[in-house]
Amino acid sequence: NKIVDIIPNQQVFGKKEGELLVIGWGGTYGSLYTVVENLLNKGEKIALCHFNYIKPLPKNTANILKKYQKIVVCEINSGQFANYLRMNFQGIIFNQYNKIQGLPFTTTELSSHFKTLLVK
After folding, report:
1. Residue 36 — φ and ψ, nearest 5°?
2. Can you name the residues that pair with 98 across neighbouring β-strands?
3. Which end of the chain has fewer beta carbons closer than 10 Å to its terminal beta carbon, N or C?
């Protein structure tokens, strides 16, 4: 647990607070970054928080999560990281977007899903 004092703070790409925070980790970075960047360029209040450190989580994680109205965790599995976040940050709602087909996310499917969350 002491390593939390030496790992870097979590970074956010995009709006530092807003309507939607997209969370990813591992190999989802490229697709998530591309879609978030495109939506930012269209004026959406969206951000990407891509984790490199998971256990422990960076110590500023809770402060980041509190700044967004909606959070979606995108994973190429059945949602292990989303469940881990729920255990660590009770009271915060983590929406999930999972793909379990052995294929990466496409920018088209991500963009469509994020636009749906931004409208609700």
Report:
1. -60, -45
2. 75
3. N
* Three state DSSP letters for the chain: CHHHHCCCCCCCEECCCEEEEEEEEHHHHHHHHHHHHHHHHCCCCEEEEEECCCCCCCCCHHHHHCCEEEEEEEECCCCHHHHHHHHHCCCCCCEEEECCCCCCCCHHHHHHHHHHHHHC
What is the rounded CA–CA span in Å between residue 41 and residue 4?
34
Confidence of residue 119 (pLDDT cuts 50, 70, 90): confident
- Is this prediction's pTM over 0.85? yes
Closest CA to 25 of 49, 3, 6: 49
Integer Cα distance of 52 and 54 in angstroms: 6
Mean of pLDDT values over 72-101: 95
Cα separation, 113 vs 109, in Å, equals 6
